[in-house]
Specification:
This protein is mainly β and 262 residues long. The protein has helices spanning 200-208, 220-233, 243-248, 253-258; strands spanning 29-41, 45-48, 54-60, 65-74, 77-83, 86-89, 93-97, 99-107, 115-118, 121-124, 135-144, 147-153, 156-159, 163-165. The protein folds into three domains: 29-97, SH3 type barrels (Roll), CATH 2.30.30.40; 99-165, SH3 type barrels; 172-262, PGBD-like superfamily/PGBD (Muramoyl-pentapeptide Carboxypeptidase, domain 1, Orthogonal Bundle), CATH 1.10.101.10. It contains four helices and 14 strands.
Length: 262
């Protein structure tokens, strides 16, 4: 059996006997697909050889993905090649282009042309141009004619002539950098609060005493308020917020160990 260009694991490849069939007669038309395409089977699916005969005892599994690089046309019907001598009927699959990659593109100052994609490549689909400087999230990327194409909708693409990858704001060096995932604590957690400490806990303490949160630094004003609070509650008067002081202020013990500082 010829080597297939398989990109997804086929679970339970069906091996079933079938009567001979054909997809082409004396003449056929084959053409190369413009860029990498992926066909996804809708159900357990027949395979055919290059000369149009059904491949006996073999099918492709349902909901599996295969790279195709060529299509064959016979009597108005299309078939996609998924191996050196194995074809699958277009009606049995859905087709997509490019590869999965996500990000955000910004449309350039002159706006962006809308494209769609078929077996012959990208083409202008006649939809209204994208607004200049608008931002769009993409989930697929493809290459054609020296340009990068970004899929920003259902078969809606914009290319690198009209769009550039948007770079989000980032904090200056020396500060915690903006990330898409939660920043993990470094070092000990459950730390005391004292002069010079900054972070989420300090923000909450400042808010508790009614101070402005234009910054989140534990300063001398906070320390004085904490001392007064500790004296009223019969706690050691240190001006430092420890776990006991934290809990007396109504905060949970679990938050003491989960909130972080900078």
């Amino acid at each position: 059996m010829s080597k297939r260009f398989k990109i997804a694991f086929v679970c339970g490849l069906a091996l079933l006997m079938m009567s001979p069939q054909s997809v082409k007669a004396d003449t056929t038309n084959t053409s190369k697909i413009d860029s990498q395409a992926i066909v996804n089977t809708k159900s357990i699916t027949n395979l055919y050889t290059e000369d149009g005969k059904l491949i006996q005892n073999q099918k492709l599994g349902a909901n599996t993905a295969w790279v195709t690089d060529q299509k064959l046309t016979y009597q108005g019907q299309t078939y996609y090649r998924v191996a050196t001598n194995e074809y699958i009927a277009a009606g049995d699959v859905t087709i997509s282009y490019g590869h999965a990659k996500s990000g955000i593109v910004a449309i350039n100052d002159w706006g962006g042309v809308s494209f769609s994609h078929d077996d012959n490549g990208f083409y202008r689909n006649g939809q209204k141009n994208f607004v200049a400087n608008s931002l769009w999230k993409y989930d697929q990327v493809d290459q054609s004619g020296g340009l990068t194409y970004y899929r920003i909708g259902n078969d809606i693409w914009v290319n690198s002539n009209d769009a550039t990858i948007a770079v989000g704001y980032q904090n200056p060096s020396g500060w915690f950098q903006i990330q898409n995932t939660q920043i993990k604590p470094v070092g000990n957690v459950g730390y005391d609060l004292y002069n010079g400490v900054e972070g989420v806990k300090v923000y909450l303490v400042r808010k508790y005493f009614g101070y402005s949160n234009t910054h989140t630094i534990y300063d001398s004003s906070i320390a004085a308020s904490v001392k007064s609070f500790q004296a009223r509650r019969g706690l050691p008067v240190t001006g430092v917020v420890n776990l006991a002081t934290w809990k007396n202020m109504g905060f949970s013990e679990s938050s003491w160990y989960s909130l972080i500082r900078t």
